[in-house]
Write the structure tokens for this entry.
Amino acid sequence: MSETIQPAASRRNFIKAAGAGTAAAAFGAVSLTARAASDIKFDAEYDVVVCGGGGGGLPAALFSRWLGNRVVILEKAGSVGGTAAKAAFWYWVPNNEPMRRAGIADPKADYMRYVARLSRPEQYDATQPKLGLSDWEYEMCEAIYDSASPAAELLSSKGALPYRHEAAVPDYWAELPEDKAPRGRVLFPKDGLPSMSDGGRVAIRTMSAAARRDGIDIRTGCRVQKVLVDESGAVIGVESLTEEGTLYRVRAKKAVIFATGGFTHDPELRKNFLHGAVYGGCAAPTNEGDFVRISSALDVQLRNMNYSWMAPISLDKAIAKDGSLSGIFTPTGDSMLYVNKYGKRVVNEKLAYNEVCATFSEWDGAKGEYPNLTLISIWDQQAQDHCGSDDYGSLIVPKGSNDRHVVRGNTLAELASAIRERMAKYQSALGGATLSDDFTRNLDATIKRFNGFAKTGVDQDFHRGERIVEKLFNGPVSKKADQKNETMYPLAAKGPYYAALIVAGNLDTKGGPKTNSHGQVLDTRGAPIKGLYGVGNCVASASARAYWAGGGTLGPIIAFAYRAAQSANGGQP
Ligand SMILES: Cc1cc2nc3c(=O)[nH]c(=O)nc-3n(C[C@H](O)[C@H](O)[C@H](O)COP(=O)(O)OP(=O)(O)OC[C@H]3O[C@@H](n4cnc5c(N)ncnc54)[C@H](O)[C@@H]3O)c2cc1C
């Protein structure tokens, strides 16, 4: 059955449809009586229907296919890849095969202490059998340890995602006493560039080539909007809306696996679930929380909706919906610092991206404001000349690159006036926030203090450059003979100076329906909803507030894709 419901829609309108009010009407679940279920004419039938063809969907489809199933991927965008296509595609795989081969020990008990310490620091207790985690969190974290490596090895051996290992790459808290295997857990797509900037493109290319080679059907421009449920409550298929405006219904004999990403691009969900002001992010624009809306008709338990994989982003680019928007993974520049609207430094600029973001949402209860709602990165000509990079969200870009997010001034006073003007342009997005009257005076004092620290090499306020991960993301620098700390250098006494506005953003969100460790979506009694699975950012991640390491999203996602495919096939990993 292929039923026309609206005139052919442009891709843009098709994508936007859910963000607007149409979403509530279009999304959900259809419960069918036994008779209706047998009467319904599906357009196609597969063993496994995978919704979303990104970082979770492609591996889930591949694992299902390699178990002998007939598999289709229904993808909303015009091509597969999702957010994963933009990613560096590091994937964090504890106790991975190259580590074992190299004799790097990574016992499960140590790994569990590391992840528990960071996911639920307020409850962490190393003396407790489950370390302070809930049963669910403990089981989910164990599953990552048990399955990430077998999953990565299988993808590699089938030629879908051959990997490269760099034993020196650290976790983000490599110096914590709980981290007994601080280096070596990250894998990279083998054919990616050494800069790793094209990892996602490579991984999506190799995985989708393997999908086509091995007979997985891929239908793009197909937005899943409903699950079809039989009388017993089992999910038996999905209804999707094609770009041409027709309905396409697919029966799933064994399982429907959702991998439709998070809700970064649904401002309503963002505003109501995330903490503080988050200005969108760099997830695929098609990630609009569709599974939250679809599953809300199914008696599911939403978990960890308040957390996301965060990264600072350029305010200019976020507001312009600039396709080149990326998280500021690499806060380039040594003669560079961040200040708030009072001209005060409030954070170690080189902290890992997810961690810097906690600063934006600090609330001043006395003044009734977010003093750090937007931070301002400031740098001098030296940093401009030597630290420019087009990689991963760097605000300091080389000459000739798109630099519309940058403002300039020959003096600090001129710079302040240019920043003030830029903030005025965005006053409705910033709640009217502007620079304080004493901004320039404070900035001058802040730079003098920073310069003093840079000369001695010791940042007494924020300890910049003291942790291993800060050097990993430092970006290009020209090493100066008198430089004591590679992440810091005094800003010049004379201009020109440069600045850019930064706000909190997401790579994507990490809340959604709760699943068990086999990817089965659970109902409010904790029982699996038969036939319904979820992997990736469309379901709840047990990592809660943690971003354990580079690859901390994709490594676990691949593990759960592996486990979901096994379970859907009637087995257990
Ligand atoms: C710049 C950048 C760099 C990153 N680097 C890394 C990294 O190095 N390592 C790491 O671990 N993580 C990284 N991430 C995060 C990582 O990319 C995501 O966590 C990961 O891609 C999530 O996989 P997913 O399958 O949940 O979502 P996605 O990869 O976003 O895939 C979701 C797919 O579902 C589709 N979809 C949405 N709704 C529907 C619907 N209703 N019907 C059908 N299809 C639908 C979307 O179009 C999309 O293709 C990075 C992210 C960004 C933005």
Remarks:
- The radius of gyration is 24 Å.
- The chain is about 30% helix and 20% strand.
- The longest strand covers residues 497-509.
